[in-house]
Request: fold
Amino acid sequence: MSQETELKLCVAPSQATLLRQTLTTAALPQGSTIEPAGTVQLANTYFDTPDLRLHQARVALRIRQCNGQFIQTLKTQGESVNGLSRRGEWEWILTSDQLDGTLLTPLWPSQLGDVSVANLQPLFSTDFHRTRWLLLWHEPYARVEVALDQGEIRAGTNTSPICELELELLEGSEVALMAMADWLHQQVPLTPGDDSKAERGFALLTR
Reply:
């Protein structure tokens, strides 16, 4: 298990190009460096029971497809304040796009004890391009993955656009995430985003 700590920021689609330019060419604070890590397409399918038992327990379960590889991810209840979130996260490589319940059993929350994989079904999906940079922040020290996601969420015939920036702490101080956000906000207007893609997907189901 790892604890995912990230800061999610909303970006106006009209500002996405400027944000890319800022992350690629702007002069960072002294001692900080940034390197591009490429762009990938991520297709994600989220699973739950028809009556949304996982969502009610604040658990997210998805299968992600990236470069022909399938990854099953379980995220458990966390907290999100002003865009900064912390939650448990587990990932497993799969050989297909089918859920593997044997991997989930040891981690399954007690309140979902009566829910089996057979009860789960795909409810919505997200499809987006992720452009990543690796950033070393000098003071306070942190190593961070910066990811700009652009695409959409789909639930039946309902859709919602994705245009957001995620700063994921790989090593170092959480304080650095806020310092990075402040610096970026000076270049491009950004707002905290407390709703995950999964939460937005569930909201589309009831639209």
Notes: Residues 2-205 form a domain with the Hypothetical Protein Pfu-838710-001 fold (CATH 2.40.320.10). Residues 174-187 form the longest helix (14 residues). The two ends are 34 Å apart (CA to CA).
